[in-house]
Task: inverse folding
């Protein structure tokens, strides 16, 4: 019987090989043949199942039917996968260290970067159905955690994600994750996802929404030098998505890449009416020649927590006479480029001077005094601000 089956199989294989020149796909993509072979290893006298120590080989055929070189695809155990992930991470340099991660999928915190993973069928992965936010860690305090958490929950509601925990539980999970990390200066980033369950479009098949959080320590030295920006040719997100901090950051990424391709730091979006909107992950503000702090309205862009805090702190500069006033309104490109100062504002860069926009030099082409004063106020606020913006971490 084994000999008869082997001969029958050989005939099938020969017939299949003879038909290869007429195939429209390479054999590696042809479903009628490979699935029957993929779990078997053949010898002259018997057919036996593959074991974990065995290696798959795959051959591709070029358009003229010629066989291309084979490559090995090992079948790995869970422990082997973890070890390879750990080795892979050790093989490349990064300026960011990942110190701790929480996942509601496994219901706890890990400090092993090889275990900081999410399921492939999580809808945040393959459908972009997720939202996120970030809070800075400064001297063992979480800066504006509650303000960012409020926005986070609002984004989840807009994204129709069923929040799996109450607000206070989420808050305690985030604080605990930072505590475990021992990080005293860095950032905490966290996500809500529709959750794992399947590869369908709708989230109706997801088991439960998931919460992820990770503590990041960036080893890059701070840089407050003036930067160049360009006008983005990538369309701004529609209003419904622009005001929500979702994981759909492809437009943002392409906008940032466009800036880098033009030797600039960031690209500035304009809204549908041609007014100044925002950068790819930061707000923008100006100091007019009349010494007013001018910031675009938040009705069509993301409501920046750091930008709103800057508006509050800027009142000190009004009292000191360094600013005449503060205005939040539509800003034309012409008025923006005529400003004495331009700045980008965000939790990642805090406050940074823009000295050139496209071909236009902003002000005198140097870092502006008001921008520097606002940066100092934010740094001071992060280190000694009121309890409303500083949450202590119990290490």
Result:
């Amino acid at each position: 019987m084994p000999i008869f089956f082997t001969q029958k199989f050989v005939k099938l294989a020969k017939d299949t090989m003879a038909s290869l020149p007429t195939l429209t796909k390479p054999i590696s993509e042809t479903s009628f043949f490979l699935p029957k072979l993929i779990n078997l290893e053949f010898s002259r006298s018997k057919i036996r199942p593959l074991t974990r120590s065995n290696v798959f080989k795959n051959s591709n055929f070029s358009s003229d039917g010629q066989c291309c070189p084979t490559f090995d695809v090992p079948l790995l155990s869970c422990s082997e996968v973890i070890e390879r992930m750990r080795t892979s991470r050790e093989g490349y340099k990064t300026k960011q260290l990942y110190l701790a991660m929480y996942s509601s999928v496994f219901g706890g915190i890990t400090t092993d970067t090889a275990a900081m993973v999410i399921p492939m069928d999580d809808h945040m992965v393959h459908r972009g159905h997720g939202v996120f936010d970030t809070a800075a860690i400064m001297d063992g305090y979480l800066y504006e955690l509650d303000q960012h958490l409020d926005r986070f929950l609002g984004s989840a509601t807009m994204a129709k994600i069923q929040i799996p925990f109450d607000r206070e539980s989420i808050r305690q999970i985030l604080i605990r994750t930072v505590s475990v990390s021992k990080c005293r200066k860095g950032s905490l980033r966290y996500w809500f996802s529709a959750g794992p369950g399947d590869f369908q479009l709708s989230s109706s098949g997801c088991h439960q929404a998931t919460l992820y959080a990770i503590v990041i320590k960036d080893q890059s030295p701070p840089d407050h030098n003036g930067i160049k920006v360009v006008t983005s040719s990538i369309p701004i997100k529609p209003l419904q998505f622009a005001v929500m901090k979702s994981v759909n950051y492809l437009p943002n990424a392409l906008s940032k890449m466009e800036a880098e391709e033009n030797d600039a730091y960031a690209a500035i979006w304009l809204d549908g009416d041609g007014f100044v909107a925002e950068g790819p992950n930061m707000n923008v503000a100006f100091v007019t020649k009349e010494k007013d702090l001018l910031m675009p309205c938040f009705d069509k862009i993301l409501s920046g927590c750091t930008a709103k805090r800057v508006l509050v702190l800027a009142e000190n500069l009004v009292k000191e006479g360094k600013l005449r006033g503060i205005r939040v309104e539509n800003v034309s490109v012409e008025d923006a480029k005529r400003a004495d100062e331009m700045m980008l504002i965000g939790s990642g860069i805090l406050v940074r001077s823009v000295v050139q926009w496209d071909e236009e030099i902003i002000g005198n082409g140097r870092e502006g005094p008001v921008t520097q004063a606002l940066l100092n106020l934010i740094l001071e606020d992060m280190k000694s601000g009121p309890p409303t913006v500083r949450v202590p971490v119990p290490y």
